[in-house]
Structures are given as C-alpha cells and as structure tokens.
Amino acid sequence: MGLFNKVLVANRGEIACRVIGTLRRLGIDSVAVYHEEDVKAPHVALADEAVQLEGMVPSGAYLDSGRIIAAAIAAGAAAIHPGYGFLSENAGFAEAVKQAGLVFIGPDADVIRLMGDKIRSRDFAATNGVPVAPSVTEDDAGDAFVAQAEAIGFPLLIKASAGGGGKGMKIVRNAGELAENIALAKGEAGRYFGDSRVFAERLVERPRHIEVQVLGDGTGNVIHLFERECSIQRRYQKIIEEAPAPNMPPELRERICAAAVRLASAARYLNAGTVEFILGADGEFYFLEMNTRLQVEHPVTEMITGFDLVEAQLRIAAGEGLGHEQKHIRVKGHAIECRVCAEEPDYGFRPATGRIGFLALPDGEGVRVDAGIVARQAVTPAFDSMLAKLIAYGADRETALQRLGEALRKTAIMGLPTNLDYLLRVIRHPAFAAGILDTGFLERFAEDLAMPDRGDPTGIAAVFAAALGDPTFRDLVHRVPEPHASIGRWRN
Known about the structure:
The chain is an alpha+beta fold. It has three domains: 6-105, Rossmann fold; 134-202, 2-Layer Sandwich (Dna Ligase, domain 1), CATH 3.30.1490.20; 208-449, D-amino Acid Aminotransferase, Chain A, domain 1. The protein is built from 21 helices and 23 strands. The strands form six sheets. The protein has an eight-stranded antiparallel β-sheet, sandwiched between helices. A five-stranded parallel β-sheet has the order 3-2-1-4-5, sandwiched between helices. Strands 6-9-7-8 form a four-stranded antiparallel β-sheet. Helix 5 packs antiparallel against helix 6 and helix 14 packs antiparallel against helix 15 (420-428). The longest helix is centred in the middle third of the chain and has 17 residues, at 250-266. It is globular and about 60 Å long.
C-alpha cells in the first residue's frame, strides 16, 4: 500500500523530533501534538502541523488517547507513531488506534499485553527455550510463596509483575528479611501500577544488562540488529549505552541474539522491539523483559548497522515487511550514547528544574545529537529529566570514547544543573575505558566519580568563552531590565 501520507507523532521532546526528522526525509507529512506548556517546543516547530491537547496536567495531555486519536483523524493522518514512554506500551491505546481505522506503528495489542506482564512474559520465554533465572511466582505458590522463594536460595530479587524503573523491587539477602520485603514490594507495586502481584528470582550478582534489538513482520519472521550494553545505570535507569557490548565473546553474542529472535518469533512479533537480558560473570544469561517499542538508546544500533529504525518501523507498519535478511546485517565500528539530564548526580541524582539560559550542542566527525530543547526553554517537573542524547561513533571503541569525551566538553547548558560533568567522569574512569561494566558500576565507584574539589579550569573557561560568543547570552548579560532601563543612571 506504500508508505503513509501523514503520520501523527504522539509524543514530545527529542523522540518526537527524531521521528519527525525521518518522516520529513521520507516525504511524509507530520502532525505534532502538544500541551500549552510546550507551545514553543522544538517538536512543535519542526512538524508540518501541530494540534494542541487540552489538559490541566501537562503529562496528562500526552496520555489522553481519545483526543490524540481524534486529532489524528481530524488531521487526515493514516498512522500514529507513539515514540517511547507515554502511550507507547499501552495495549488499550494500540487497540483503539486500530479500531479507529488508523495504523499503530508498533506491535499488536495482544503482544504488548503479553510482554508487559513480567510473570506472563517470563513463562512465555521459558516455554520457548529462552533462559530465565530460577524463580517462583506468588500466584503459583500461593501461601507457600515465602517458603518456595527461600528454597531458591539467597540473594533473591523480589519484583513487581507490572513493574519498571525499580519500583516494587527489593533485594533480599537472608531469610529474616524475606517476608517483610515481599510485603513492601507488594505495597509499592499496588501503589505505582495498580497490580500488587510479585515474583521472586535468584539475584545475579554484579550483572551486565544486555539487550538485543529485533524487527519482526508479524508472521514469525524476525531479524536482530545485534546487542547493546546498558549496564551503566542510576536508580535502575540507564544513562550510558553502547553497541556492540564490549568484551563480548562471539559465541556468547550469537547465543544471546538467537534467544532474542526465538522469543520474538514465537510471539509473532510485529515492528521494532527489544529483548533484555541479565548476563552473569559466569557467561550465563537470563531473560529480563521485552520492551515493545523503540528504545531511548536506539541510535547506537543505528550507527553500527546503518539502519534508520524509525524508517524500518514505518515500512513494517505499512506492510512492506523486513526488507533485509539476517546474513546481510553486519556490525561496523562502535557507538556510545550518553543521556544528558537535568539532575544533580552529587545529590542522589535529584531532578533539577529551571530555564535554559544558554545552550551549545556539539558537532563534529562521528558525533550525533538527538535533542528537543532550545535556549530560554523552561524545564519543569512535568516531564522526564532527560534533555538530550549525545552519541559518538568511531571505527573502534577507543575512538568512539575519545569523540564522546570531546562532545561532552563542547556541550554547554546554562541555567540549571545537569549531569554533563558526571558523564565525563564516568567515561574517563579506567574501569569504563577497559569495558569492565556491570549494573552496580556507579555505586561501586561512587567515590571516584564524586565531584572533585576543583573543576577543570580549561573546561570551565571553554564554556564561558562559548557563552560570551553567543549574541543571545551577551544580550541577557548586558541588558538592563525594566524599570531600571527607563530610569537611567541612579544609585542605590
């Protein structure tokens, strides 16, 4: 049927800009949606059309599936791209889009439901020969749940079935604290997700977090685009990702990717998705979850494979199939991504708010920036703290790291705290440079990564030189505000 004439992007920020960029390259008209707080946001200006969504709460506007679908129909869009977050993994939304006669650019609602339930998805993985960690679910064990969990052996991880972001997750190291932590996990799960079911599984100490990008055509045909390393995390959320995973033996890479394809094929997966695994130091890996959407970290896969994953999503959704065979997909070079966030790493990564007074983003060979911010834009608590992503590519990991370091040094965001300096400290750490990674990296090296007593004077000077060279910043510095400008010379 050919590609779509017009697509509505049901998201905001950098991912909306990212999707709109591919739509524009393919000659497809784009429709943005926005809350009034985002009226001057870059994704609104970039789109061919924009529709305001009413709503007292900004984030609530982007979750109003009825109004979003109505906006798509009124604009004459044939499809809706959900980006990530918000409604991207909402089975009800995917179903409603289809019932409205539009195309949801993502998997079917049934697959979203299956993979969105951690207990069901684990059982499905095990049934299809994908390794899962030794575990027991509360539903299966009933009153004997505590005893059966204890029988697995410690340490244990208690997890919410509908969980994410570390909510409803507890580490238990001995029998004395098991019952209490199960109760705490159930309480958190009920509050955050409206589903208090939990399960217990063997905790893999110092694991790596490895994920595999897959594409499926909905008939069981699936290809993978190799793996990503996502072990650098704070509060169970990734901040640095790379592809391919460093220090990964070829045989292990092949087994992990094959397991991801096996799972997606069994689910008759449609569109782009990511199968996530925990990898132990002994080389054993276990299924963690499947994300039924485009991932924040997808650019590193694009840079090492040459794929535009948004284009692949569009073509699959339009019925064109995969368009590629596994044997023709190759990895070339190395890519690393940093998530630039409005937060204070040295104070528990607490989110920061403010107004961006000056903004300078890097460029250069092998450097890509995915951003959805502009100077003078307000950063509020209404949305996620991520401001932009810096991605660096090189013929090898060392080159990619060097380019990423330069990109971080050239980035300036004034007006609110960010994690830019912290990211630079992380990638310069000897263990990171050696590719010795696991999900506890930031905690283990917290002392090494803490803010030094003195900043890098060269880096500070570079930032101020860049700022003073910007006309907008100079105007802000030297302009006298009213009413003082009209008063003329005066003394206090």
